[in-house]
Structure formats: C-alpha cells, structure tokens
C-alpha cells in the first residue's frame, strides 16, 4: 500500500469512505474479471486476471503463455541461417530489428565484421522497422482509448514504410535479410529517393497524430497521472526503451554502446520525460518516431560505397564461445546470449526480450487503479505478445 | 423453413439465398500473431479494403459472426479457447485458416507447445498459405470462400452433412459457370 | 574502463568468485559460489549495477538426439556426451546465468553459478531485484531448478499439467523423432540458378 501513488491512495480512501457511509450493513464481494486471451484491446493473446472491488482493482496478474512457441528450444536444432529466419517473428511488427542482435552476436563469435556499407544499410532498415512498429502503436493507442480514426492513418502510413522494406528485402515484414557477414543483397535502384519522400510523409503523420490524439482533452485526462513508475522501480524491474526514458532515465543503447552499427555516425536527440506516467510514455514514443525519420535522412546522405557481404565460407560453422549483444529495439532492449560449441547451429540461445520485463511490472502497477485504466496502462507500456512469450 | 430441411428448395432459390449470404459475411477476427497484422491491414487499411467484397469485420461477439479467420500460431494452451469460441458461433459458419502456422504448424512444426494446424481442432474451409500471406492473398481466400458458398447445398447443411455442393453430377462435384468448385465430399 | 570495474567487483566479492573472465572490447563474466548467489546480487547493486537484465539457465549436456543436420535416427552410441562448460568453467550440468548492467555507462556483467545436481536449487533474487520474479518462474518451469525464497513459483508459460521440463537437453522434440529432418539438401534446383546460394542462405 505504501507504494501506491497519491492519486490512487486518495481514490482508495474515498471509495472506502463512500462504502462506509452507504453500505453499513451491505456485504460486498470482490469479483474476478478475466480480460482476454481473446480481446480486441490486448495486443494479442494476453490474459489478465483482475480481482475487483467495485470498479477498483485489488490484485491483477497477467497470465502469459498463450503464444509460447518454444523459441529457445527450437534454436538448438536449427542452423544459424535458419535461426535468423525464425527469430524475425518474435517482435512481429518491427521484424528486421530482431535479426540484428543475433547476427551481431554470431559475427562476434566468428570474429568477422560486416563491411561499412552493410552496417549502414542495416541501420537504415533497423530504423525503418522502428518507424513501422511505433507508428502502429500510435494508431492502436487511439483504439485502446476509444478513438477509432487514428488507426486508419497508422495503417495507411505504415504501408509506405512496408513498401520500402519490401522493395529492399522482398518481404513486407519478416524480411530475413541479414546474414552473418553482411546482408543478402544490395539496395535496389531508387530506394534512396523513395525513402526520402516517405520520411516526409511520416513526419506529416506524426503531426496528424499529435493533432488528433495528444491535444485531446479526453486523452490527456485519461493518461496524465495514470500508472506512474518511479525511476528506481523501473531499473529494478528491467524496464527498457521508451518506458525507461519516460521515467527520466537518460539512457539509450544506440548512443551509449559501441557496436558495429552506424548510429555513432549520426546525430540524434535522446528524449526523456520526467513524469513517468502513461502520457509520458506515449509522448516519448511519438518524439522517437520523429527522431528516427531524421536519423534515416542523415544515413541516406552518407551511405558509403563498397561490398555488402564480407568473405565468409559457404557453410558457416561458428567457433566455440559465448557472446551477448543487445540493441535498442522498438520495444526496448532486446539481447541475445549465444552459446556456440563449434557446430553449424547454436548450442543455446537465451533471448532477452524487452516486453517480458516490461509486463512483469504490471502486477505491481495495477494495484488500486480503475478498470478502464488497466487498458490505458497496458496500451502505454506497449508490448507485443511474441516478445513476451517467445 | 420447412423447404430447406426437407431438401425441396429449388436450385434458383438456393442460388439466390447463397448469393445473399456470401456477400454479407460478418467476420470474427481471431488475430493471434503476425498474421493478425496482415489481417488488420486487409480489414482496416484503406488500400486492401475488405468491405468492398461485402465482408464486414465488425461483430462484437462470436454469436453474431458467420466467418472466423484464424490468423497466427495456435498453441496448446490457446486451443480450448478456440474450440469454445467456434462452438459459440451459430450455423452456418465458415473457417478460414490464414498463414502457415494455422495451416500446419508452420515454422514451429517441431515445437512442444504448438498445435500443428488449427484443423486439428475445428473444421476448416479455406487455407490461405503464406508467412504471412499478403493481404491480397487473404482477399483471394475470401473470394474462394464466397464461390464455395454460392455453390452450397443449403439442405445438406441443415441436415448436418456439412458443406456440400449443389452441383453433383454422377457423384462427382461439377463446374458451375466455368468455375471449378472445390469441395470435400 | 572495464578492467577497473572488474577489479572493483572482484575486490568487493572476494572469495565468493570462483573464476572470472574479461574479453577485451567485449564483455565480463564471473562465476560465483552457490551460497553467495544472493549476496553477489546485493553487492553488485551497491556497486552501481542497478539495471536488471535477465536470469536464466544453461544445460551443458550435449543433446542425445543430435543436431538438425545429423540424422536423429542414426546410432546414438557414437555421439559424444561429455559435458563441457563454456566461459569461466563449471562443474555441474546446469548453470544459472544472470546479467546485470550499469545504466548510463552500459557496462554489463554476466554472472554464472553452478547448480548442484542433487540440490537443484539456488537462492532467489526477487527480494533484491523485483524483475527476477518472472524470470525465475520461467527458469523453474523450463529447467526444473528451484529458487529458495521465491514468493510464488508456478508455471509461467506452460499449462499447469504439463509434464517435464522442456529446455533440458534430454527432453525430445517429438515431431523430429517421428519424422527426421531430411537435411539441408535442396531436392530440386531452384529455377534459374542451379548450385548457387541455395545452401548458405
């Protein structure tokens, strides 16, 4: 109880007082509400079991596992290229971003580094995946709160980005484009000009969403002050990405880490917000999409010439060792701990997915909130079921 | 309607009813995984608009739907929920299995927690292959389903014999209007 | 930077560290004793490693069912079953591995601990790092490793009546045993290119 915010505490006391005044002889029972696993408001098959006292949540727990496909076991019987194809489908909205840390870990073990052009193009596709992912979040945010129009904007603008990714890699999502040592292929002709046009359209989209949603009085009153996460709690739960930066932690793995990707050649702002409530999380993500478009523009201007694939043997056997690589994925920090024993496939892959940690805070966070706020908090925390359940 | 279950509904009238049914399908979206995003793009985005085929993605509950599109991986933990929601749909109902995970287990064919195909739990009418299938592929699946419905024998369905074509010639299903009708007899 | 950090950590933990490894321009590993598992977490938290990465486990037994490119129905007599641990060594089949990170500097440390086969349990970190709660539940159901002091150790992903611990190497993937993977051989050549990139991609 001491961990509840002021607003929640006041609400609880007020409700107890109201109960005491009116229902002196009335015995009330709590009710168990089961949200999901099939529910239009959850991003997939997440089931939340909530014990309610009237309209307030006394205890809530997410029950994951409805999309558990056994990734870590499957990677043990596949070769490295097969695992790359499989791993795309963890965070299924921004899928190129899932391949990159795995391939970087494998390259670390092999001791090869992709050529500069490949690193550059990887970063461009990574940022495009981030834009595709978060723009759908912005549209879905409206749907969770009851505003249906933004999602059509989101799907329409997402189509432009998916067309770009499809033009370069052949797949709208699940591109499966990364290879150990570089990329499968070079960029097609006309990609650079087309991407510049699309980035302008996405900046317009961000402005439209800001107009439609963020200034709206209902949106503000539904998200301000809801689901406040203090800084130290966020760190001890392992929250990452925009959730952490919305609580005031100025930490971004693109800027603060030294891995063979092209982020250190660009100039971008890391956006934080001191409040830590749902509005902060949504707002930080909106600004991050804008920053991403600027990153892509800078990268397009400076793509170096050269090969896109380093010299690696045809049948790749990765030498023994262990490696950890994590990157700033659209959902948060995603990392792979790859253990290899000299075979064509990994011995053990531990997939550290961002949404697992992000959702582990939900039992603590949902104590004392009202039922509609459950949906608001889940929407602002933003998870993908494939990321939670792997 | 007494005519339907006694099988005495004349063919032109059946064709008329079937046409009406096939052009006003209400889809219950069962979006599980990545295919759900492509299904959302087909249903919700202005480019691959599905409403122009007469399919409306708006039912609030399975009891108001006639078509369910299972898109995404079916796990063993989720399977009872799928069976229950399928049984809540009123007849006549159709199932489209979208994506390779729902068709046969897909890339997770050897996993310990994945059901190898949703047809192990519920009967499927149309399989749409792909990983994920493009929204146009899903639209083609819906068009094939509409053709199937147009050729369907309502009397057989009412009697509980499942989906049967109206046009049976010498025990074999025939073509109607130059279009082959694929049914399982 | 990493060398000084590792030196600080080794000094603070003292005799609890069994082995350590620092790969230049890469990462740090330490292996601690099982009794000091929770104390290690508390010490590292005071040294600035306040960001919780993950807790999981590794089963070092080579799979008795072979890898995908072998034929699983072949004779298993000649398959090597010696247990060989990775970085910082080890003495047992199971090891619990965790990662903690210093925010802002992004210096992370991988911490391993041996899990004795007879005991099959280590202390829980959920009182030190709240995020460890879910991770330990998942490790418990996947490997069968107990966590002493965990408030609520039940299944995370699998149905409650699931038998077995899937991530152990001796848990078979039945679909592969019923019909073994035919191998990475393209039966038909792709149209256009015959023997080009078909295998490495």
Which residues of chain B sit in consecutive blocks of at least 5 with pLDDT less than 50? Answer: none
Strand content of chain A: 5-15%
By CATH, the superfamily of chain A comes out as: Cytochrome-c3 Hydrogenase, chain B
- How confident overall, as mean pLDDT of chain B? 81
Q: How far apart lie the N and C ends of chain A?
A: 33 Å
Q: Given the C-alpha coordinates, what overall shape of chain B results?
A: globular
Average pLDDT confidence of chain A is: 85
Give me the number of helical elements of chain B.
7
Name of the CATH first level of chain A? Mainly Alpha
Level of helix content of chain B? 25-40%
State the domain count of chain A: 1
The helix/strand series of chain A, from N terminus to C terminus, equals HEEEHHHHHEEHHHHHEEEHHHH
Strand neighbour order, sheet with most strands of chain B: 1-2-3-4
Structural class of chain A: alpha+beta
Helix content of chain A: 40-55%
Major sheet details of chain A? 3 strands, antiparallel
Instruction: Outline the biggest β-sheet of chain B.
Output: 4 strands, parallel
Radius of gyration of chain A: 22 Å
Produce a short descriptive summary.
The complex is a heterotrimer of chains A (390), B (185) and C (201). With 185 residues, chain B is an alpha/beta fold.
Question: Describe it for me?
Answer:
The complex is a heterotrimer of chains A (390), B (185) and C (201). Chain A has 390 residues and is α+β, with helices and mostly antiparallel strands. Chain A has one domain (71-361): Orthogonal Bundle (Cytochrome-c3 Hydrogenase, chain B). Chain A has 15 helices and 8 strands. Chain A has a 3-stranded antiparallel sheet. A 3-stranded antiparallel sheet of chain A has the order 6-7-8. In chain A, helix 7 packs antiparallel against helix 11 (278-301) and helix 11 (278-301) runs parallel beside helix 14. Chain A is globular, with a radius of gyration of 22 Å. The mean pLDDT of chain A is 85. The mean pLDDT of chain B is 81. With 185 residues, chain B is of the alpha/beta class. In chain B, helix 3 crosses helix 6. The relative contact order of chain B is 0.16. Chain C has one domain: 2-Layer Sandwich (Beta Polymerase, domain 2), CATH 3.30.460. Chain C starts with a helix and ends in a 23-residue tail after the last helix. Chains in contact: A-B, A-C, B-C.
């Amino acid at each position: 109880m001491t961990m509840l915010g002021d607003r929640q505490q006041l609400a609880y006391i007020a409700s107890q007082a109201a109960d005491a005044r009116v229902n002196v002889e009335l015995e009330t029972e709590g009710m168990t509400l089961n949200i999901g696993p099939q529910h239009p408001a959850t991003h997939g098959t997440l089931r939340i079991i909530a014990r309610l006292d009237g309209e307030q949540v006394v205890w809530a727990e997410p029950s994951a596992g409805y999309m558990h496909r056994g990734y870590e076991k499957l990677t043990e019987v596949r070769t490295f290229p097969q695992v790359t194809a499989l791993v795309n489908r963890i965070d299924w909205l921004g899928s190129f971003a899932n391949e990159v840390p795995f391939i970087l870990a494998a390259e670390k073990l092999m001791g090869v580094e992709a050529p500069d052009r490949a690193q550059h193009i990887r970063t461009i596709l990574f940022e495009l995946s981030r834009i595709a992912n978060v723009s759908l979040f912005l549209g879905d945010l409206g749907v969770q709160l009851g505003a249906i129009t933004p999602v059509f904007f989101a799907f329409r603008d997402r189509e432009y980005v998916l067309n770009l990714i499809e033009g370069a890699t052949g797949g709208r999502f699940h591109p499966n484009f990364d290879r150990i040592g570089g990329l499968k292929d070079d960029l097609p002709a006309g990609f650079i000009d087309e991407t510049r046009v699309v980035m302008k359209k996405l900046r317009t989209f961000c402005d439209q969403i800001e107009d439609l949603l963020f200034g709206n009085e209902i949106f503000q009153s539904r998200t301000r002050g809801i689901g406040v996460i203090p800084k130290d709690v966020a760190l001890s739960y392992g929250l990452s990405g925009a959730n952490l930066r919305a609580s005031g932690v100025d930490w971004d793995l693109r800027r603060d880490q030294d891995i063979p990707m092209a982020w250190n050649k660009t100039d971008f702002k890391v956006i934080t917000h001191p409040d830590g409530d749902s509005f902060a999380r949504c707002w930080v993500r909106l600004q991050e999409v804008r920053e991403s478009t600027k990153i892509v523009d800078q990268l397009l201007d400076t793509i170096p010439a050269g090969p896109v694939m380093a010299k690696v043997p045809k049948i790749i056997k990765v030498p023994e060792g262990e490696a950890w690589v994590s990157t700033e994925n659209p959902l948060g920090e995603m990392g792979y701990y790859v253990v290899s024993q000299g075979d064509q496939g990994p011995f053990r892959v531990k997939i550290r997915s961002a949404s697992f940690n992000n959702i582990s805070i939900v039992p603590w966070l949902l104590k004392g909130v009202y039922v509609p706020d459950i949906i608001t908090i889940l929407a602002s925390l933003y998870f993908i079921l494939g990321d939670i359940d792997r | 309607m007494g005519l339907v279950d006694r099988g005495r509904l004349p063919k032109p009238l059946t064709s008329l009813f079937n046409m009406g049914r096939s052009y006003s399908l209400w889809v219950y979206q069962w979006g599980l995984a990545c295919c759900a995003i492509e299904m959302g793009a087909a249903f919700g985005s202005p480019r691959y608009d599905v409403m122009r085929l007469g399919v409306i993605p708006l039912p609030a509950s399975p009891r108001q739907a006639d078509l369910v599109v299972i898109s995404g991986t079916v796990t063993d933990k989720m399977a009872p929920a799928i069976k229950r929601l399928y049984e809540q749909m009123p007849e006549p109902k159709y199932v489209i299995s979208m994506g390779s995970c729902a068709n046969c287990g897909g890339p997770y064919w050897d996993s310990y927690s994945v059901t190898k195909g949703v047809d192990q739990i519920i009967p499927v009418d149309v399989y749409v292959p792909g990983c994920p299938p493009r929204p146009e592929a899903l639209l083609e699946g819906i068009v094939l389903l509409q053709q199937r419905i147009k050729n369907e024998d309502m009397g057989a369905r009412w009697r509980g014999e499942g989906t049967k074509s109206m046009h049976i010639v010498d025990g074999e299903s025939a073509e109607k209007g130059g279009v082959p009708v694929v049914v399982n007899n | 930077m990493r060398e000084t950090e590792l030196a600080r950590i080794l000094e603070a933990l003292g005799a609890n560290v069994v082995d350590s490894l620092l790969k230049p321009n890469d990462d740090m590993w330490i292996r601690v004793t099982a009794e000091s598992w929770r104390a290690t977490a508390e010490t590292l938290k005071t040294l600035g490693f306040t960001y919780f990465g993950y807790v999981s486990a590794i089963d070092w037994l080579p799979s008795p069912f072979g890898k995908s490119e072998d034929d699983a129905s072949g004779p298993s007599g000649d398959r090597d079953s010696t247990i060989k641990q990775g970085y910082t060594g080890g003495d047992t089949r199971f090891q619990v591995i965790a990662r903690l990170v210093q925010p802002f500097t992004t210096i992370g440390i991988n911490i391993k601990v041996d899990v004795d086969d007879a005991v099959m349990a280590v202390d829980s970190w959920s009182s030190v790092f709240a995020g460890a709660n879910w991770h330990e539940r998942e490790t418990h159901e996947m490997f069968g490793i107990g966590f002493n002091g965990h408030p609520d150790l039940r299944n995370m992903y699998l149905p409650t009546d699931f038998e077995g611990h899937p991530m152990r190497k001796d848990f078979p993937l039945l679909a592969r045993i019923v019909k073994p993977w035919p191998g990475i051989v393209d039966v038909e050549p792709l149209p256009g290119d015959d023997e080009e990139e078909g295998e490495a991609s």
